[in-house]
Amino acid sequence: MTSLQAAARSAVHHAVSATAVCLALAACSAAADDTKPATPMTRYETPKDAGQPAQTKTADQSEPAKAPEFSAHGAFSNICGFCHEDGGRRAGKGPQLMGTEKTDEQIFERIKFGKPGRMAAFGGVFTDDQIKQIVVYIRNLKPR
């Protein structure tokens, strides 16, 4: 038998063995008692305080996941910065926003409703409060 044939036979043997192990593990886990909640202990150990009810939270009792806090700087960098370069400090595809003569209301309206052919409307992306935070971010832009 050549060394290539021996290596191939060994590889097949290992693959068959690994498959058998996987099937055996799957069969064992399917046959295990699933009436107990999963814990760090093995399924066959009893907790030390077996007489007391478990203090676990179910899915409907768990704390709701908190949405990450809104960052006007982050939103501007990730969305608006594509057209308003250097964080709004330089003109790019869109105008420079630092030092703009537009009123806060005009900036708010432009962000919320856009301008056909020039700027997309972001009223469906941001809440009014978030748009106001972006306006404050724009007003606070300083040269670098």
Write the layout of secondary structure elements.
Blueprint lengths: L2 H29 L40 H7 L6 H4 L15 H10 L14 H12 L5
Low-confidence stretches: 11-36
Question: How would you spell out the order of helices and strands?
Answer: HHHHH
The rough form would be described as: globular
Work out the number of β strands. 0
Distance between the termini: 74 Å
* Helix-residue proportion: 40-55%
Describe the structure.
This protein has 144 residues and is mainly α. The chain has one domain: Orthogonal Bundle (Cytochrome Bc1 Complex, Chain D, domain 2). Helix content is 43%, strand content 0%. It has helices at residues 3-31, 72-78, 85-88, 104-113, 128-139. Helix 2 (72-78) packs across helix 5 (128-139). The longest helix is centred in the first third of the chain and has 29 residues, at 3-31. The protein is globular. The protein starts with a helix and ends in a 5-residue tail after the last helix. The model is unreliable at 11-36 (pLDDT under 50).
Key structural traits:
144 residues; mainly alpha; Cytochrome Bc1 Complex, Chain D, domain 2; globular
Concise synopsis of the structure shown:
The chain has 144 residues and is mainly alpha-helical.
